[in-house]
Each structure stands twice: as C-alpha cells, then as structure tokens.
C-alpha cells in the first residue's frame, strides 16, 4: 500500500479490516481522500499520517481507535479539549472547523434551536459568509441513537439527488453526535400544513409540487440506488422545503439498505404512528411498498389539512368511510378548494392516495409510477 505514491482516493469502507492502522499509510503523499470507516481498526492513529500533505478528507469513524489525535499541524482541526476523543469532521464549507461552528453557535445554545425530534434537536447556525446551516444533534444517552447516526451518515452521506437533503459533514465530539446540513428556511411540509405560525399560504400547485418532489426522491432511493434504500419514516415532517419551495427528503435515521438478494427482509418495525404500513407492522416484512403507503398518508394530509392521528380520529379511516359513501370531496381542506379550480385534479389525487394505501402491498403502485401519476394531478 505504501508504494502507491500517486494514489488520490482510497475507500475501504466495510472491508473487515482488522488490527492497527499501518504506518505505511503515511507514504501516500498524494492521497486527498482516505475513507476507512466501518471496520475493526484499533489502536492509535499513527503519527506518520501527518506526512499525507495533500489529505483533505480523513474518515476513520465507526472503528475501535484509542489514544490521542497526533499533535501535528495536519490534525489541528481534529483536536478536542478534555478527555481524549476522536472527532471526525467532513464539512463542505471552506475555512470552517467544528470548533469554529461551535463557537458561532455558542456551543449549541438553546436560542439557536429551530426544531425537536424524538431522538434529536436541530439548531440553526449562520456562518460568517452568511451561509445558514442546520446542525442535527442526536441524543447520545441511548445506544440506538448511535445506530441512527450511523444509518443517516451511511445513507444520505453517500448519495446525491435534488430532492434529498445533502449532508455537509458530521462530527463525533464531546458536543454530541452532530450532522451538518443546508438550512431549509421554509421548514417542513408539516410546519406549512399544521404549524402554529403557518406564515406561508401554499396554493394547490405548490403543495402538489412539493409532494411530487418527495415521490421523485423516494423513487431514486428505491430504483436507482444500489443497494436500494427504504426510508421507513416518510411523513410530512421529514419532507423539508427550501427557499424556492423545492423538496428535500430528510430523516434517514432508520432507513434500511436492502440487498438485491433479499426481496422481503424481516426487520424490527420502526416508524411513526399514523404513517406505518399496517402490513409491515403485522408481518415485519419490509418492502418499498411500505414507503408507498406512508406517502399515501402524506397525500391525504395534503388534501384534508388534517393530522394523521388527532385524539382518537384516524385520517385514513375517515377518508375510507367517506369514499364508501361517495362523499370524499367533503373532506377536502377549504384552502385547497380555493386554490384549485379543477376539482377533477383533487379527485385524481384522492384516488392516488387511496391506491398507495391499499391493504395489500402488491396492489400499490411503486414510487416511479406514483411520480408519473402525481404529475397527472397537477
């Protein structure tokens, strides 16, 4: 390995590497990107890595390293005060380190909080170049939160699509497990539909464009990624909206990568009440059609303006009962009726939502078909 003097990029993720990190890696003088995550490398980081003068990205996460970070200039952005801990930072923002961002955000002061989740808190941080980023801080007191951190990094950290959030970087540090994303000024679709402020009134075409964008992002995960990825937590709060009302699907903490050899893997049932596919909940067999079901619930939220579960009311059951009586149009949100002049488009969207939420997964369309049908509703 040490003889590869002109090697520029090295990725040995999940290669079952075992043992200490060889000092010969320091001979890779031209290396720019070195990714050795998810192995069983143990022991200290060899000081010889400081000789990799061209190194821009070094990812040693999810190994069993110990000791201190080498006290050299090459590693100055990785040092932490207090007990020795390995911090890994891959920020795609020139000139900033994790310490810079912590200083700007006053060590993640409460005044910068813009949202909460079941396992995380989200902060807004405006950098000196006026770029706003979102910092997702995952709680570290429970073991499953480390798995969520790893899942989110492994999925969205390695894929790119216009309708998926872009991971700018991550850090394992005394400040917690941190993920850095572009900040979405319009919040989530949940905020726009149900939030207390509801600052922006969305017309029907904009609402539908947001959901079609989410469908296109899911179609990419299901059909274009290898291995394919099932999101498992599709809901209005995981559909973010940028300043141009373009969609960014987020929250990949429980996403599942599925091997082509496994068509119906059995997994622990995870997700959000009101959006979980009942067939998945009953059998623990996970397929892409579980995401399709959840997307159908999102469409019903859009059409009715109602939450999926509100007290004892269930949104899908309410819509199904009205569909049986041929009175489903009575459930339409008045704001939708005002901004959509062609009621036939609303009926088509109801039909699509009910198709996505069919009881048997085999009767549901796939996400590519959903995207095509969604375009027909606009």
Automatic annotation (TrEMBL):
Positions bound to ATP: 136
Residue intervals of the Protein kinase domain: 108-378
Keyword Protease: no
GO MF, one annotated term: ATP binding
Predominant cellular place of this UniProt entry's protein: membrane
A Pfam entry, by short name: LRR_1
Cellular component annotations (GO), alphabetically ordered: membrane
Alphabetized SUPFAM superfamilies for the sequence: L domain-like, Protein kinase-like (PK-like)
Locations listed in the record: Membrane
Keywords: ATP-binding, Leucine-rich repeat, Membrane, Nucleotide-binding, Repeat, Transmembrane, Transmembrane helix
InterPro entries associated with the record: Kinase-like_dom_sf, Leu-rich_rpt, LRR_dom_sf, LRR_Rcpt-Like_S/T_Kinase, Prot_kinase_dom, Protein_kinase_ATP_BS
Top-rank lineage group of the source organism: Eukaryota
Protein name: Protein kinase domain-containing protein
Organism (species): Kingdonia uniflora
């Amino acid at each position: 390995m040490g003889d590869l003097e002109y090697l520029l990029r090295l990725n040995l993720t999940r290669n079952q590497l075992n043992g200490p990190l060889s000092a010969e890696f320091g001979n890779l003088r031209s290396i720019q990107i070195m990714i050795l995550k998810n192995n069983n490398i143990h022991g200290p980081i060899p000081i010889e890595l400081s000789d990799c003068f061209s190194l821009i990205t070094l990812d040693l996460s999810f190994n069993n390293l110990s000791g201190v970070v080498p006290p050299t200039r090459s590693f100055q952005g990785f040092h932490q005060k207090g007990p020795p801990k390995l911090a890994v930072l891959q920020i795609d923002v020139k000139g900033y380190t994790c310490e810079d961002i912590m200083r700007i955000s006053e060590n993640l002061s409460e005044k910068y909080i813009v949202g909460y989740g079941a396992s995380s808190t989200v902060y807004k941080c405006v950098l000196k170049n006026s770029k706003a980023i979102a910092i997702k801080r995952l709680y570290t007191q429970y073991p499953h939160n480390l798995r969520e951190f790893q899942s989110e990094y492994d999925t969205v950290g390695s894929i790119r699509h216009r309708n998926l959030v872009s991971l700018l970087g991550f850090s394992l540090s005394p400040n917690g497990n941190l993920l850095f994303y572009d900040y979405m000024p319009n919040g989530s679709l949940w905020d726009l539909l149900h939030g207390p402020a509801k600052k922006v009134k969305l017309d029907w075409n904009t609402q539908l464009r947001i959901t079609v964008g989410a469908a296109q992002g899911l179609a990419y995960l299901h059909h274009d990624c290898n291995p394919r990825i099932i999101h498992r937590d599709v809901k209005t709060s995981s559909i973010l909206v940028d300043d141009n009302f373009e969609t960014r699907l987020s929250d990949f903490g429980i996403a599942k990568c599925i091997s082509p050899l496994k068509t119906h893997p059995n997994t622990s049932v995870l997700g959000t009440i009101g959006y979980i596919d009942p067939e998945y909940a009953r059998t623990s067999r996970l397929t892409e059609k579980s995401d399709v079901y959840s997307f159908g619930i999102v469409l019903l939220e859009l059409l009715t303006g109602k939450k999926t579960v509100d007290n004892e009311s269930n949104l899908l059951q309410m819509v199904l009962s009205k569909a049986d009586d041929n009175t489903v149009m009575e459930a339409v949100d008045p704001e939708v009726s005002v901004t959509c002049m062609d009621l036939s488009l609303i009926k088509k969207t109801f039909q699509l939502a009910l198709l996505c939420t069919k009881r048997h997964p085999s009767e549901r369309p796939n996400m590519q078909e959903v995207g095509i049908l969604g375009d027909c509703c606009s």
